[in-house]
TrEMBL record:
Keywords: Calcium, Cytoplasm, Cytoplasmic vesicle, Endoplasmic reticulum, Membrane, Metal-binding, Repeat. One of its GO terms (biological process) is COPII vesicle coating. It is a peripheral membrane protein. Residues 6-41, 73-108 form the EF-hand domain. PROSITE patterns: EF_HAND_1, EF_HAND_2. Gene3D superfamilies: EF-hand. One of its GO terms (cellular component) is endoplasmic reticulum. It is found in: Cytoplasmic vesicle, COPII-coated vesicle membrane; Endoplasmic reticulum. Its main location: membrane. The lineage of its organism: Eukaryota, Metazoa, Chordata, Craniata, Vertebrata. This is Peflin. It holds the Pfam family EF-hand_6. It comes from Fulmarus glacialis.
Amino acid sequence: GSAPPGVDPEAFSWFQAVDADHSGFISVKELKQALVNSNWSTFNEETCLLMINMFDKTRSGRIDVYGFSALLRFIQQWKNLFQQYDRDQSGSISFNELQQAFSQMGYNLSPQFSQLLLARYAQRSSNPSIQLDRFIQICMQLQSTTDAFREKDTGLVGNVRLSYEDFLTMVVTRMM
């Protein structure tokens, strides 16, 4: 068949190829098999789940062709940003590039925080760096938690007082 109205024909044909079980929906597993980083590793499951949840309007744990088409546009925007911050064109983001990216995105984060992210999300090596999938995941989580923080920081002073349960509620509703 041909692409439904409002869906890019290329996205439609890729949707059909990715929909391995021909259910008319893309699952996390199918998405994970379809997306690769510059080093040819598949996207990690956490990032795929975050993205599926973002475009899953029915809360079924999968996306239809419209959600998939929107997801591809979303990934392309992140890929463009990623390539902009990957100054040495290595296909991954190093510590210095990550620091610059955060600064240019308006986040005032310490080198220690960037180091913590590298330790958590980079592949183990002598020169750890972040692949596209983890970059998307980090940025989505940073955006989400920043939004949650700003809801509490009404005076924009950079500090809030939270109860433990308020903190857990913020984490559970934004991250899981």
